[in-house]
Amino acid sequence: MSAPVPPGTRPAEGWFFEDYALGQRFGHPVPRTITAGDAALYIALTGARHPLHCAEPVARAAGYPACPVDDLLVFHIAFGKTVHDISYNAVANLGYAGVRFLAPVYVGDTLHSQSEVIGLKENSNGSSGVVYVGSRTLNQHGQEVLSWARWVMVAKKSRNRPAPTPILPALAREVDVGKLVVPAFLVPAGLDPMATGGTRVWDDYQPGESIDHPGGMTVEESDHMLATRLYQNTARIHFDAFAAQSNAFGKRLVYGGHVISVCRALSYDGLENTLALAAINAGTHANPTFAGDTLYCRHVVLGRWEIPGRPDVGALRLRMLGAKNVRLAELPAIAPAEKHPQVVLDLDYTVLMARRQSAVK
Amino acid sequence: MSAPVPPGTRPAEGWFFEDYALGQRFGHPVPRTITAGDAALYIALTGARHPLHCAEPVARAAGYPACPVDDLLVFHIAFGKTVHDISYNAVANLGYAGVRFLAPVYVGDTLHSQSEVIGLKENSNGSSGVVYVGSRTLNQHGQEVLSWARWVMVAKKSRNRPAPTPILPALAREVDVGKLVVPAFLVPAGLDPMATGGTRVWDDYQPGESIDHPGGMTVEESDHMLATRLYQNTARIHFDAFAAQSNAFGKRLVYGGHVISVCRALSYDGLENTLALAAINAGTHANPTFAGDTLYCRHVVLGRWEIPGRPDVGALRLRMLGAKNVRLAELPAIAPAEKHPQVVLDLDYTVLMARRQSAVK
Amino acid sequence: MSAPVPPGTRPAEGWFFEDYALGQRFGHPVPRTITAGDAALYIALTGARHPLHCAEPVARAAGYPACPVDDLLVFHIAFGKTVHDISYNAVANLGYAGVRFLAPVYVGDTLHSQSEVIGLKENSNGSSGVVYVGSRTLNQHGQEVLSWARWVMVAKKSRNRPAPTPILPALAREVDVGKLVVPAFLVPAGLDPMATGGTRVWDDYQPGESIDHPGGMTVEESDHMLATRLYQNTARIHFDAFAAQSNAFGKRLVYGGHVISVCRALSYDGLENTLALAAINAGTHANPTFAGDTLYCRHVVLGRWEIPGRPDVGALRLRMLGAKNVRLAELPAIAPAEKHPQVVLDLDYTVLMARRQSAVK
């Protein structure tokens, strides 16, 4: 393992494809203490309603010492830290794999992120390449709270620089159930259906079942920029309308993570008793989202796993499809990995959910 | 009194008019802990400036243990909880009555809301009906902090379902002075004119007096959606521009509560020494507000009541008129219950205000 | 020194030029307690990333008891308080001088502002005049945290009122190094380059050096209005699109302070190890900024001062140029006090930055 890239060596215009090397490591700057202000903004920006994240007594009844910070808010801040060194000059954020939520985060915790280059492949056009990185985020106690891989298309600064030897990392297609972390203190049955509004638990979701969530959310420029700035994500494509006039779309793109958060908020009704995100197995931003687009969300239940040693809680594997500007009733079933012009998000992830007490006995 | 509607029985698309029955009770999901983040966002979203809600020493000098949360922020969060079961499929939010502010709310308090159907009347067109509900909000100690009645026009899912027997509730035209709650600890004279910027107190407002507040506030799509999401209000008409293309206006409507908050913020200058909202006697959203509209506020003093046992504080009954896209100097006097095309809000409410010490002696 | 203007004497439409008199003093209403919500909003509104203001362990390592509130957030709230009495009817905010940051502010502190008229000059057109004020902001302990002078063009209400004797205050062109405040507890070397992402310190910046910061930020109506409302700044020109139809631009203007904050956030990369703002020597909003404009930032190093008694920290004098809708590479060098149609901000300010330990020995 090589030594970390020293601070102060990053060029002002950021790293380009030819600057990356296999095994290169980055300690990303600007640690961040999460506050009650961040949590409130996350609700205002997304419409999130999971009571574990906004109602202290509900969190305590489920065994938490306080409201855990919304898993996706943690993800966006953790991810945002890596942009500075990884995707500042990104052409496209291609995918995620192996995202694991390892420990709850609370208001007052301070997070910082690290990354390592795990793969490189120049594109045949010679003007860009794909960088694969493994990243992890630690809290102020040095405890890992999140780890993930992603790959991103990064521009080359100079076409003349030689291509590196292509190396593609081995990325698991899913986070194995044995790698999911369930907090020892968690009391799944403590999550009160009167507080969540739903009674369905792990046992009630059938693989293959599809849920079209009824709400829709139109994204405004201010909304996605406020969110992306809150996460201290500096990727220029989200903020600079003047420069964006000359990009392929002629305008700013919405940070894909904002799309995930809006879809998750829209899908609260129907998945009320989710305890936590445990993993994101794979994910792609299948099409760009722009301000003015209205987002809708469909879920498909992919699978249901028991968790060894925890008869009180199960893992539910879900496919989140984010669609834009279309009535979901008119959206056909989308085959695995199928592209559809209205589908902007295709996310395969795993949540924790209580199992029926009767099943426990 | 019937048993509460069990959680998990709500259809994904929400309740329609024919689903309601007299006496039906709802315990609304998603309790909410109010934080310093919510209070800061409320200021940013509305421009609120009452120092009791944003300056700790000012609140303590008036007897409060800490800054009480702005009454309207409490109202919006409390109200937002009821949308899920009451107005998710609302065509229009028709009116409020008997809103009583029963106890201060502080940062850290957790609120949840309950409702009961108190009246039903199908519209003659057979495609919608009016639902009257009484609602109340409790804090984590089970103490009632807010109660109110409202009525809302809700779509029928099927025209063929039979109409219920019409039952109209008896709603008082005003909250009687004897029902206003004044915290025992309140020290009205402790509210420093140097902190509020105004010297007028209860004694100085004359019934019939009209105040045209000088500022104006243009509402943007992001502003009202951020506010409405912060309140976890899920009414679809505020968020979904794609679906709104087919509504009567062809666009999103601004949550009426946001209009109330903006008007209250605009009216700070002229009503600086208001201690608290005590009641909303009646209120209607007389016309819709859309993004791009600029709001202005006029107040008319309706009456002045002494409060038994509290010679140091009086109740002031006010009429808040919210107008849009018009110079107030050109807006005529609006008769009681009169409709005017530029008037979007007509709210009859009661505030607490200190009385002169000389009057006490 | 005359007695303060009594509260309650301000006309509803605010003060006009002919209402001001030399020596007049104002205690501005609405003190404000700064919360974690304000700090989070400031990040979301501007994209600020200085870790001293958002990472508790980083602040403590530099000697602070907790994260100090961002200097510009303090400035905007402090400044916002003065608008009510000074610039409510401002035609233009002409300039700042002698801004001194005197003590750190922390979450929980309550600020209030005072001003005194130090100069007056009617414009030759007889319809407006320039008011010069000295202002200061105190915390809840009565400690001065900020002081500054500014001058603002204010409309006359009546052309017929006589002009006052013109009096121009003596304003220093810079805040002398001897007047800069360095907290005794500050441990400049404690600011970790791994946390900030940069290694350059005071010794590394050369007078005359120019830095074109790479990012850009497009300003939306919601963004600047949210920020300006958060600061409880009530200047009407920022909020009222309906009235603005008849102003010189036909639209709302962005609060100049928002431009400063966005430029400062954009310039984080390149000035990572700034410890604090110590002073603003002079500043002008050279051209108006409107929603839709994209802001960019260039810095020029004006000078480098040693600080008596503190060999561990130096003062760096910087010129912040904010430009809009232009590629910085195409923006020429701007001479001192030169106007350029794309330059909206020209700010001469002084920051504190660690000196190399080797220089200390």
Protein traits:
homotrimer; 361 residues; alpha+beta; 8 helices; 12 strands; 29% strand; globular
Report on this model:
The structure is a homotrimer of 361-residue chains. Chain A has 361 residues and is α+β, with helices and mostly antiparallel strands. Helix content of chain A is 18%, strand content 29%. Chain A has eight helices and twelve strands. In chain A, strands 1, 2, 3, 4, 5, 6, 7, 8, 9, 10, 11 and 12 form a twelve-stranded antiparallel beta sheet that branches. In chain A, helix 1 runs antiparallel to helix 5. Chains in contact: A-B, A-C, B-C.
Describe the secondary-structure layout:
3 copies of one chain form a homotrimer.
Chain A: E1 25-27, E2 32-33, H1 36-46, H2 56-61, H3 71-86, E3 90-101, E4 110-122, E5 128-138, E6 144-155, H4 193-196, E7 210-212, E8 217-218, H5 221-230, H6 241-244, H7 256-266, E9 274-284, E10 294-306, E11 313-324, E12 343-354, H8 357-360
Antiparallel strand pairs in A: 1-4, 2-4, 3-6, 3-9, 4-5, 5-6, 7-10, 8-10, 9-12, 10-11, 11-12
Task: Describe, in short, the structure shown.
Chain A has 361 residues and is of the alpha+beta class.
| Portion of residues within helices of chain A | 10-25%
Q: Structural class of the secondary elements of chain A?
A: alpha+beta
Q: Overall pLDDT of chain A, averaged? A: 95
Count the strands of chain A?
12
Question: Given the structure, what is the number of helices of chain A?
Answer: 8
N-to-C order of helices and strands of chain A:
EEHHHEEEEHEEHHHEEEEH
Q: What amount of the residues of chain A lies in strands? A: 25-35%
The gyration radius over C-alpha positions of chain A equals: 20 Å
Q: Please report the distance between the alpha carbons of the first and last residues of chain A.
A: 48 Å
